[in-house]
Amino acid sequence: MTTALITGATAGIGAAFARRLAKDGRDLVLVARDTERLESAAAELAKKYGVTVETLAADLATDAGIGAVEDRLRDADRPVDILINNAGFGNRGAYLQVPLEDELRMLKVHVEAVLRTTSAAVPGMRERGRGGVINVASVAAFVPRGTYGATKAWVVNFTQGVARDLAGTGVRLQALCPGFTRTEFHQRAGMGTGNIPAWAWLNADRVVDDSLRDLALGRSLSVPGKRYKAVVALVRMLPAGRLGGLSSKTARSYRPN
Predict the structure, then answer these.
(1) What is the tens place of the pLDDT at every residue in 13-48?
(2) What is the CATH number of the domain that holds 175?
(3) Catalytic residues
(4) Torsion of CA 166, 222, 112, 254, to 10 degrees
(5) Biggest alpha carbon distance in the chain?
(6) Which domain holds residue 121?
(7) Over the stretch 243-257, which tens digit does the pLDDT of each residue have?
(8) 61 with 109: CB under 8 angstroms?
(9) HSE of 244, CA atoms in CB hemisphere, 13 A
(10) Contact 161/122 with Cβ under 8 angstroms?
(11) What does the alpha-carbon distance between residue 195 and residue 173 come to, in Å, rounded to a whole number?
């Protein structure tokens, strides 16, 4: 039986990955900061799907937290076959409105943690001749918008570059780029969503289904939903300056629900 390790596993897309992979019969290692919530999620998944579920309480904004996940990924006696780097967050406000320490924390979670955990997981996968890494990015990766968009653009470029380097090894990598998805993301960041139309929202379970299908097909980039595929195709054709203005206007227009 294969094992999947999921960061940010107790809510949103991470929790949807946990449900789907447990349903598929995979054992799990759930990583998040909230120990109580981790244990509750683990007990529920183990009971419902009959799989083994480990928990690892770790804050990926700290070296100790990232190191704990690295250690688990390098444990050859308990190999991890699928890594889902889902942990992440948003900051409300434009550049200079967000404290520098919060920007640096975002870089730690979105960039350093992804680099280090991927680098810890891939050697064992390559040695075994199989494995998969899904790094959760965002459609924001394709639109200039401060630190968040920049970190997600890094995730996309890093993941696709490593996927090319590992072609033919049996290890697949994917950058998952969802659009607006119904999770706790905006609420945690203090962002209102009242101005976002109903058609723009994705379901987390659908995002996961699309991601895993694309991973099986060997696609290093997954953009769930036809509407967001069209959005990404469009923004790649528009001048960068126009994209920046549109993105800034959107960021300022968040309204309470």
Answers:
(1) 999 999 999 999 999 999 999 999 999 999 999 999
(2) 3.40.50.720
(3) 148
(4) 170
(5) 52
(6) 3-252
(7) 454 444 444 344 333
(8) yes
(9) 7
(10) no
(11) 34
